[in-house]
Structure formats: C-alpha cells, structure tokens
Write a structure and sequence with these properties.
- The protein is mostly beta strands.
- The chain has 7 helices and 43 strands.
- The strands form 13 sheets. Strands 1, 4, 5, 8 and 11 form a 5-stranded antiparallel beta sheet that branches. Strands 3-2-6-7 form a 4-stranded antiparallel beta sheet.
- A hairpin with a 2-residue loop joins strand 2 and strand 3 (54-57).
- The longest helix has 25 residues, at 649-673.
- The chain is elongated and about 140 Å long.
Length: 728
C-alpha cells in the first residue's frame, strides 16, 4: 500500500502567494486510444478542458490512435489565490463523428484542492504529468491493450497586465487623455428566455463618470466600436480608482413598470495599471481581450466558451482649454476675475416630441455657484451672448473644482432635461486666473453625455461656443474717483438696501432670519431682523463720518451678515469688506458722487452659496456729502494741544531722574527712623509718573497721597513705599 502520487509534483509551493494568478494548462497529447470508428477506421480524438463552467477545446486529429494537439494550451485565472478554487480541473477525451453524435472516450480530473495548490505555487514553476483516462471508474484500454493516457503540462504565471505593450515612461507629467475603444463582446450567454438571445450593452466607470455604449439587439456577439476619453490633470499623481467595465443585457420596459437590466458580468483595469497606462509615451497603443467575470468566475457563453470583450487603447494629450490665455510672467496673487461669455450652441437634438424642437438654456457651475442664461424657445441653434464674472480672492491658491457648463432643455410642465455638458479642469482654471491681464480666448467645446458626444437633429455633433477674458477685480464703486486737495470733515451716506440668495439656515420648514452689522472706525450699526426669508430688503441708511478726509483710515469697512436664532447663538453667514484705502478715496470724492453696487459675501475665503445655488450678494448704495457740525469739540482740543509750550525732552528726563533719586533717599531714611505704622502691615506698591502723582496697587492710599489713573503712553517705574507721607 502506497500513497497516491501528487499531480505535478514539480510545482513548488509559495508561502507568500497572493493576488491574481494564471495557470497555463497544455494538453500535449493522448496515447493508446481504443478503436472507435468501425472495422476500417481508428479514432478521431479531440479533448475538452473544463474549469468553472467554461470549456476549452483542442483541434481534432483524424484517424489515429496517438494524437498530439498543437493548439492545446489554455489559460485559467483566479483573482485571489488566497481564496483558492472550488472547481475541479476536468479533461474529457472525445471521438469526433461526422454523421452522428460525438462519442465520449473517457475523462480525468485534477481535484480542486490540488488546483488551488498549483495556483499558489512558485511563479515560473511547472510540471508534466501523464494521467490515465477513466470511464465508469475504470481505466480505458486502448487498441493495443495499453492503458489510454493523456499528457498534461502546467506552468504558474502572473496574471498578465492589460495592454502589455504600453509601458510607463520616466518623468511623465501634466494632463493626459486615454482613449479606450470598446470593439465588441463575444460568446455571450443566453439571457432572454427560450427564443431570445441577448441584448448586450456595456458601461465603463472611471473617476465617478459613467460611459455607455449602444444596445445591440438579440445577439451573442456584438460589435460596438465606440471610443471614450478618460482624462487626468496630472499623470505624476496617483490614480485612486479602478476602471470598471460592466456588460449588461437590456430588457424592454413592460407596460406597468420597467424591468431592471440584467448584469452579465464585469471586469476591471486596476488603479495601479491605469497609472502606468496614463504614464506611457504619447501615442502608445495597445489591444487586449478581457475575460468577463461574475462572482469571481469567468462567464460562460451559450457555446461553452468564455465570454470576452475586445478593447483598444491609445494615449494622447488633453486639448488645453483656451490656449490663447497664457500664464503671466510675474507671480500672481490677490483677487482676479474671469469674464465668461456663453456665446451660442448649435446642432441641438430634438427634445420636445413630434412637433417641438428644443428650448435650450445653459447653467455654468463654478465653486458651488450657478449662473444661468435665458431660455431660447423652439430652436436647434441659439445665441445667448451672456457674460458672467467668476472671481477668486487669491489667484495664488489652486482652484479646487472644475468649471462645468451644462446645456439644459426647458420644459413647461415637467422637469427640465439635461442635454449634455462640458468642463474645464480645475488645473486649467487655476492657470487662467493667473493669466495675463487682458488676455482672452474663444473656443468651441463638444457637448458630452455619458462620455459620448451629443448628436444633434442634423446628425452633427452638438457644440457650444464660449469666450473668456482675464481681468482685475474692479474696485468697489469704480466710477467714483477720489479728488485731490480734499480736507476737513466728510460723510458717506451708506444705504444697506438688500441681501439676496441667502442660504438655508433654520432647519426643516424654515429659511433664514438675516440681519447685518456695519462696522467702521469704531462705529457700529445694526439693521432690523427680517424673518424667514431668502431675500432681505432692509433699505436702511447709516452715516459714516470722518473728521479729516486728508488723513489715513485705520480700519476697513465691514458688513457682517448673521442669521438670528432665538435660543442659540446667532450664526455668521458671511462678510463683505471694502478696504481702508478705497474708503479713503471715497471720502475724498467729489461731493454728491453716488453709486449703487452688489457685492458677494465671503465665508472662510469662499463665496457664500445660497439655497438656490446662486451667489449670496449684498446691495449697497453710497453718496458722498459734507459732514454737518460734528467735530467742533475735537478740533478745539487739537488746537489747545498745539498752543501748549513745548518742553525739551532731555530736560524732562533729567527732572524725572532727580525726583526718583530723591524719593529713594527718603525711603531709606524713613525706614531707619520711623516706627512701625499701618503702612508696614499693608505695604503697597506705588507708580510714579513724570508729573509726580502716585497710584497704590492695592487701591489703598494715604490722605496725603494723590491717586490718579495712568494714561496711555505714560512712562512709569515701580518703587516701594514703607512709610506714610512719602511721595514718589
């Protein structure tokens, strides 16, 4: 009695085996076949390899008892060797018959446990095994009375990476575009009942965007030949998401409800491999056949073949939006503005039934804010020619979100429908905000939906035309200019008219309870509270006064908007700031100059976005007038100060030194002569200023002492006083 030998003993185990692996199985040949084809014939053998429901078949060798199969190598894969496999590896040997059903000669198998061990073997190791063909539990005996045997060879390999010809290059940087073409799918399973086949389509998901092919009806083999563009802003950064492909069987909607489409299977290109593909040399191409899997196993088609999808890949550069807008040669910081014009759209698709066309409008999304154009009724080509101002507080900081333009179809009775969209990456938006002042560009963008160009009613690609200009942010009330030689008191009548597009602040069923506080040069004014509204109309006037318009201001003008809460602390919504420099210019403007302007309010460096997606703005009106009699007392005080005789600073310092020296001498003398007094039990500290009065730190004082409050700018020195009657 002996142990049964282990199949493929030459495959050495690998303790650290993990991840995907491939096992190359070769059906080398068969020997000692029995006579199967009558008196004058021999045998026409072929073999079928079965694993996890899939079948792999060799070619047929005619009229022989010993066959060698030239095309008998097949690849079987697992996603994770640590999980093993539950499927035996079975090889069936058949005799082909031209006129009748093929005859099974016998079979052999490698148990699932041993197959799992083979997948976990050392990479590159392999082995050859001669295995007996069995039928009904007995060895098949050949025509020569020898035992019928099949020779198998296996080799453990790494799972091949997709598109092996596209290797990463060193130093790849910047934006890249990967064009993935879905050529077709083969060997689909039956999905649609007894008389149907399959209605396949494929979706591709990458970086949160889904791309979808057309549906091919009633077929086991579909040709899509559709190309999708995948873009990254910087190939030197890691791609953090897989590229996932899903094969679906489309199902027609029933009268009552839509039946859900059936998933046929999936496959993916891992994120790590996507990084390498994006870093390949520009122009690199490749082709790959991917196996469709479901629940970790290959999907087996109607013909017992593994379901496969053919892909093509090509790497190119991402076309840069508005290439005529160039970076400034100098370092750019501070506020900047892009004036964005949505010019026109053409070749729109038919959206409004049999007799209608399309009612297009555009929505521009940037940094959480929406800007909408007007609706153009019943047209396939329209011109908006509407401009919007996109602003950043500091152009030196990177933009965090893409700029997205969505083309919509307006519907009177139902929800508006999205036609498609286009976008400009956050990286390119950052570059444009740092562009040269005055530089501009015009570009036509293809409108995309689900990753594919939108095709219009005339079979042309739908396109939108846009213009952009780089500008400085204009100063507040730009038409009001400061005048030269302006002196004396001035007043700005500031009217806080309204605040529009406020955000929702007060929970379910409530809106916002806004009020505003205006702060300027120590003055503070507060508006009334407007209850439960998104648009507050205050129309309240405040007077901002200065005593001398020729003098510099110390603080900016700030308008803070709050949401009032009855029980909890009021919530800050945002703030509007006008710089002290600009306020100086306004105070020095011509009398009766006035202006009306709306300003965005800012929170944490970003514009506040209201409940409707619009930017929250405050509307101010200013008028410059003469200041009524307001600063007479201050002017008189200043005149008195100017009339006081000036004292030599050096003489003042010498007099002070003498007073301090005299006080210290008195202290030493009194300590020796005087008896214990009340001051010995309560020793205070006194502060002597340049004029002589003293202050006790514990607020206790002798009637002979003069106690005063120190003033700002007073030079003081601490001295100890132990006896009464001593002046510092």
């Amino acid at each position: 009695v002996m142990k049964q030998p282990v199949a493929f003993a030459g495959v050495q185990p690998d303790a650290g085996a993990a991840g995907a692996r491939r096992l190359m199985v070769t059906l080398c040949g068969v020997r000692h076949l029995p006579k199967m084809d009558g008196m004058f014939g021999k045998c026409d053998p072929y073999a079928v390899l079965q694993w996890e429901g899939a079948e792999y078949r060799t070619e047929t060798v005619k009229n022989t008892y010993d066959a060698d199969w030239d095309q008998g190598t097949f690849a079987i894969d697992v996603d994770d060797v640590s999980r093993g496999t539950r499927s035996d590896l079975i090889v069936e040997v058949w005799d082909w018959d031209a006129a009748s059903k093929d005859d099974l000669i016998g079979s052999l198998k490698v148990p699932a446990a041993r197959v799992s061990q083979l997948f976990a073997g050392a990479l590159g190791s392999g082995g050859t095994e001669v295995m007996a063909v069995m039928n009904d539990g007995k060895a098949v005996v050949g025509h020569d009375k020898g035992r019928c045997e099949v020779t198998l060879r296996v080799k453990v390999c790494e799972a091949p990476r997709a598109f092996p010809t596209m290797l990463p290059s060193e130093g790849a940087r910047g934006a890249r575009r990967l064009l993935l073409t879905v050529k077709g799918v083969r060997h689909l399973p039956r999905m649609d009942g007894m008389f149907g086949k399959c209605d396949p389509f494929l979706t591709m998901q990458f970086d949160g965007v889904e791309h979808k092919t057309e549906v091919v009806k009633n077929s086991y083999e579909a040709d899509f030949d559709e190309t999708f563009a995948l873009d990254v802003d910087d190939v030197s950064a890691m791609v953090r998401c897989d590229c996932l492909f899903t094969v679906w069987d489309w199902d027609m909607a029933s009268q009552n409800m839509a039946s859900q489409n059936d998933e046929v299977g999936v496959f993916k290109i891992p994120a790590g491999r996507m990084v390498e593909l994006f870093q390949a040399p520009l122009g690199a191409t490749g082709e790959e056949t991917m196996i469709v899997q479901k629940d970790g196993k290959a999907v087996v088609g109607h013909d017992k073949q593994v379901c496969q999808v053919q892909l093509q890949a090509r790497l190119g550069e991402v076309p840069r939006a508005f290439p005529t807008v160039e970076l400034s040669e100098e370092e750019v910081s501070g506020p900047r503005r892009l004036v964005w014009t949505l010019d026109s759209v053409k070749s729109l698709p038919k959206m409004d039934g049999m007799w209608g066309k399309c009612d297009p409008f555009a929505v521009l999304h940037f940094e959480g804010i929406k800007y909408e154009t007007a609706v153009k009724k019943s047209t396939y080509d329209c011109e908006w020619n509407e401009s919007f101002s996109l602003e950043v507080g500091d152009a030196s900081k990177a933009i965090r979100s893409d700029c997205r333009i969505v083309i919509m179809d307006w519907d009177a009775a139902s929800k508006n429908q999205e036609i498609g969209s286009c976008k400009i990456s956050a990286v390119r938006m950052t570059e444009m905000f740092r562009g040269k002042i005055g530089s501009a560009g015009t570009q036509v963008f293809t409108v995309l939906k689900a990753g594919k160009p939108v095709v219009g009613h005339d079979k042309q690609i739908c396109e939108v035309r846009m213009n952009v200009t780089v500008c400085e942010v204009p100063k507040p009330f730009a038409h009001i200019e400061g005048a030269e030689g302006v002196t004396g008191p001035r007043r700005i009548e500031m009217t806080l008219k309204r605040c529009m597009h406020l955000p929702k602040k007060d929970g379910f069923g409530s809106k916002c309870d806004p009020y505003a506080i205006v702060m300027f040069e120590g003055q503070e004014f507060k508006t009334d509270i407007k209850r439960n509204t998104y648009d507050a109309d205050w129309d309240e006037q405040f007077n901002l006064d200065v005593a001398a318009a020729e003098k510099s201001l110390m603080t900016d003008l700030m308008v803070q908007v709050f949401d009032y809460d009855m029980i909890t602390k009021n919530d800050p919504i945002g703030v509007l700031t006008i710089s002290a420099t600009r306020m100086e210019e306004l105070f020095r403007a011509e009398l009766q100059s006035e202006g009306d302007e709306s300003f965005a309010i800012i929170s944490n460096g970003d514009p506040v976005v209201g409940h409707s997606g619009q930017q929250t703005v405050v509307n101010l009106r200013v008028r410059i007038i003469e200041c009524p009699i307001a600063f007479d007392e201050e002017e008189k005080k200043e005149e008195k100060e100017e009339e006081k005789p000036q004292v030599d600073p050096e003489a003042k310092r010498e007099a002070r030194k003498k007073r301090i020296a005299k006080a210290r001498a008195l202290v030493r003398e009194k300590e020796q002569e005087q008896k214990k007094s009340w001051w010995d039990e309560h020793p205070p500290t006194v502060i002597a200023d340049k004029r002589g009065p003293v202050v006790a730190s514990d607020n206790s004082f002798h009637p002979d002492m003069e106690v005063v409050k120190p003033e700002k700018g007073m030079r003081v020195e601490e001295v100890s006083v132990a006896r009464s009657g001593v002046a510092g």
